[in-house]
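User: Structure please.
Assistant: Input sequence and predicted structure:
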Amino acid sequence: VGGFSVRILGCSFSNVQQGVLIKGGESHELFSLDVHDLATSGIVMVNNGAEIGRKHWVHNCHVWNYGQVYPVWSAGINAGYFVLAASRTGVVSDVVVANNKIHSSPHVGLVYDCNRCVIAFNEIHDYAQETFDIGGIHTTTFSPTSGNVVLFNWLHDSVSGNGLYLDEASVSEAIQGNLVTGMLRCYKIDGPFNDNIASNMAVGCTDRGFDVSANSSSIFDSNSALLTKTAYYIVNASASNTNLDKFSNTRPTSLQSQTPTRFANSVDSSQTLYWTALHYAASTSMQKAPGFSLTPLIDVGLRPTEYRSLDPCEAHRNPCRYLSACLQG
């Protein structure tokens, strides 16, 4: 509760109500934690009364088998929403959630209700095992949140779930370079307010690659859908949305090789990571998006550290191999 620059490194939390709860405070760090077998959420960041939590950094954490007693809205990582309070308890800001692995849950993967946050290089899979109409990365609907950057995440293998779900309160989100595979719907966009959705890939969705509300004013550029039933679908459309004209539902002839700044593992502060990510997102939105690239996704998911070693199966399981197999098949 509160505090400044508290670091929790290489610890394990299991068989409790929830793994780690951060209320308020500034610049706390959670690094290489194992958090599993929980009644509710894995890692929760919320406010402490009037004190807004800010500049926290959650990275290289493995969260699984959570929401076993209270499944609905219990998330692997929950930024700005406290499920036990049954209400929005106050957004957090300038938080970084990067290189985490979240899986095996009845409901949502990662949920955020925050401003100016970075969600990057996370692997999220096998959620929505008991529910549907939920995302691997999901915004809330309580009030507008803005300025968040969602980059280079891999969401996969949740056949009843959506991949990335922007609900009605999202404003000016930058959603770029993400890969969603093996879902019901890969990207569900209900937020009506100027999100920038570019260079994302949907692969192997049984229903829709991009499911978009008719009132969305989001800008879509250079997104692709591969091996999906429907590339994109406008929900309750009364008129065509001219922003939805840049999808392809054909096999790409080649994957783009343009490489953005690889910032995920080269900085030591959440503030630096946020502004680097924001600069990349802004630079691609001011020009034609480069198209989906596999190159940044080499860095997705858990990384080996002094607190964590990866078994060979984990080390060789990555989205590059997955998508290459799809293209060759």
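The two ends are 52 Å apart (CA to CA).
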